[in-house]
Amino acid sequence: MGPLFFMLHIDLISCVPELMDSFLGHSIMKRAQDKQLLRVHIHNLREYGQGKSRQIDDYQYGGGAGMVLMPEPLGNCIESLQEKRDYDQVIYMTPEGKTFDQKEANKLSLHKNLLLIAGHYKGIDERIRKLYVTQEISIGDYVLSGGEIAAAVVIDALGRLIPGVLNNETSALTDSFQDDLLAPPVYTRPNDYKGLKVPAVLLSGHDQKITDWRYDASIENTKNRRPDLLDKQE
Ligand code: ADE
User: How many Å apart are CA 133 and CA 139, to the nearest integer?
Assistant: First the structure.
């Protein structure tokens, strides 16, 4: 028998933990945590900083603009977390990582314990990547000022896939990208808005016709908006 209760635990190391408050405290991420299906703990890297000023960053060897997160505070933080649990992956958020997509979200959402690291400034000392990091994720080919927003993107994409988080359990399965197709267009009341009518088949009550229409509309939508996805179809 499979587990009766699924819980994804995510630890995030950040030097600006406040950035995550609003995101985690509202909407579906809040519900996921209230239902104890998702647990996100934010760890303030500053608490592992050295000296009175709790230093966590320093100039880079060899010169050059931008500070680097020092290895000791970050390494100590990672090790103290690893003493408490075995992580399935230690993930560094970086534009140098593999680009995140729905397939990766599906895969990661099946894990039990993930450790995410949000970088800042020029990045983290290379030795941390060598010693601890098992996976690197980018959310796209652009540079953010820190990894927190990227981590929020990943946490959101994973959280909503956990069974029981969304009200309608099938709804994550019918999302765009789940089968490399965009979702079909959706409509709600009124039937006539500024002369534009809802496709009649959606009002027909005929389940098979509606399913067929949605599939065709899905293909059409993908052709028009993201033709590159159709190349991925077998
Ligand atoms: N940190 C800064 N930019 C990023 C990106 N594009 N993806 C993930 N982490 C990042």
Answer: 17
pLDDT tens for each residue of 86-143: 999 999 999 999 999 999 999 999 999 999 999 987 899 999 999 999 999 999 999 9
User: Mean pLDDT in the chain?
Assistant: 94
CA dihedral (141, 46, 111, 86) in degrees, to 10, reads: 140
Question: Whose C-alpha lies nearest to ligand 1, atom 7?
Answer: 138
Domains detected in the chain: 8-159 (3.40.1280.10), 176-231 (1.10.1270.20)
Which mutation among 69, 94, 121, 133 tests ligand 1's pocket best, with the greatest number of atoms within 8 A of CB?
A: 94
- How many CB atoms lie under 10 A from the CB of residue 103? 11
Q: Where are the alpha helices (DSSP H) in 51-189?
A: 71-84, 102-108, 126-131, 148-159
Ligand 1 atom closest to Cα of residue 139 = 7
Q: Return the closest-CA partner of residue 95 out of 133, 134, 141, 135.
A: 141
Look at ligand 1, atom 5, and give the residue with the nearest C-alpha.
95
Secondary structure element (H or E) that encloses residue 97, with its range:
strand 89-99
DSSP state of 95: E
The dihedrals phi and psi of 76, each to the nearest 5 degrees, come to -65, -40
Q: How far is the CA of 234 from the centre of ligand 1 (A)?
A: 31
Contact between residue 146 and residue 16 where contact means Cβ atoms under 8 Å apart:
yes
Confidence class for position 177, pLDDT limits 50, 70, 90: confident
Atom 9 of ligand 1: nearest residue by CA position: 94
